[in-house]
Amino acid sequence: MTIASPTSTESKALSLLGYGCGPEHTAAACGVEVSRISQLLSDANFAAQVAELRFQHLSKHNERDNRLDSLEDELITKLELLKDLMCNPMQVLKALQVINGAKRRGASAPEMLGTQQTVVTLSIPITVIRKFETNINNQVVIAGNQELVTIPSATLLDSVKQKLKEALPHGSLRTSKIGEITAATI
After folding, report:
1. Which of 41, 43, 50, 129 is deepest in the core (most CB within 10 A)?
2. DSSP state, 43?
């Protein structure tokens, strides 16, 4: 049994996802739809490779963060020693400021502590809100005079064909081999 080698798109996606890029950015960079990235991530082997790359990159970032933390500790110690002598504390303070301001990229980075989500508040006039009815799950079930129905995708085409048969005169509906609907005569 032979294992297929990854395509160029798969390799690019693996690299970008491994660095922590989201599926949307990865899809845009690779020139594919987000659904393609989702398909790749649904493959257990591909997902494991992404997880391994993310672990490796996070480990490198954590190592760098630890080195910066150690350097910061040394500079604090140096400042503590110099404070009594005050020979040139500004150099130590400047170095401490630079190290302290260095961007942390690993697990201790503030943006890594939780997923950041943008919450958008919409102010909708009462007259518009009254046109919608929701069920107990807060799902919109009626919009204006139109009742909204959830239909499984597998039955959607059959439902459209049935509606067209009811709306068109007898014999005017034809279906091709691939399931497309065409109105031959109206």
Report:
1. 50
2. S
CA 116 to CA 154: how far, in whole Å?
Answer: 35
70-90 pLDDT, tens digit per residue, is: 888 887 787 777 766 656 667
Domain that holds residue 135: 126-183
DSSP code for 3 = P
In-domain check, residue 38: no
Q: What is the DSSP string of 120-159?
A: ------HHHHTTEEE-TTS-EEEETTEEP----HHHHHHH
Specify the 3-state DSSP secondary structure of 175.
Answer: strand
Count of domains in the chain?
2
Maximum CA pair distance of the chain? 101
Q: Residue 179's closest CA among 159, 164, 158?
A: 158
The pTM of this model reads: 0.43
